[in-house]
Design a protein that fits this description.
The protein is an all-alpha fold. Helices cover 76% and strands 0% of the residues. Helix 1 (2-35) runs antiparallel to helix 4 (111-131) and helix 3 crosses helix 4 (111-131). The chain is elongated and about 60 Å long.
């Protein structure tokens, strides 16, 4: 039974990471569009929505590649030590975002885009906690 629980928790971790990466990419894409200025009436709403969705989907693979190793360590430590606090996973998401910025080069980020990336990391950590972090623990003792 413990082996089945471990496999189940690993699958939940992968699903939660994928959802967190999508959430982070969507937040970052929305932040980048907001930095460019509010949409004008000349720009069709569907075109703007398509632009945000495309940036979000493309950005999720970049988020997963840059922040993935740090997020994996945060998730594994949380599972092994049974951390279930939303603060731990939210700060872990922020740490992963900062690591992603460091890997890609800080000079590429101005204040607005750095804020968008950091906010995306915080949201990604919160999404991960909502899906996988609340029940963290590979080998929890059953409730009796």
């Amino acid at each position: 039974m413990p082996l089945l629980r471990i496999v189940f928790r690993i699958l939940i971790m992968f699903f939660a990471f994928a959802m967190a990466a999508l959430a982070a990419a969507a937040i970052a894409a929305g932040g980048i569009v907001a930095i460019d200025g509010p949409p004008t009436l000349e720009e069709p709403p569907l075109e703007l929505m398509g632009k945000v969705m495309l940036m979000g989907l493309a950005g999720s693979s970049v988020v997963a590649a840059l922040a993935g190793p740090v997020a994996l360590v945060v998730g594994l430590v949380g599972e092994v030590f049974q951390f279930r606090s939303w603060v731990y996973y939210t700060l872990g998401g922020a740490l992963a975002a900062v690591a992603g910025m460091a890997v890609s080069g800080y000079e590429r980020f101005d204040q607005g885009s750095a804020t968008a990336v950091l906010t995306a990391g915080l949201v990604a950590g919160l999404v991960y906690w909502l899906i996988a972090g609340r029940g963290a623990g590979f080998l929890r003792k059953p409730i009796t």
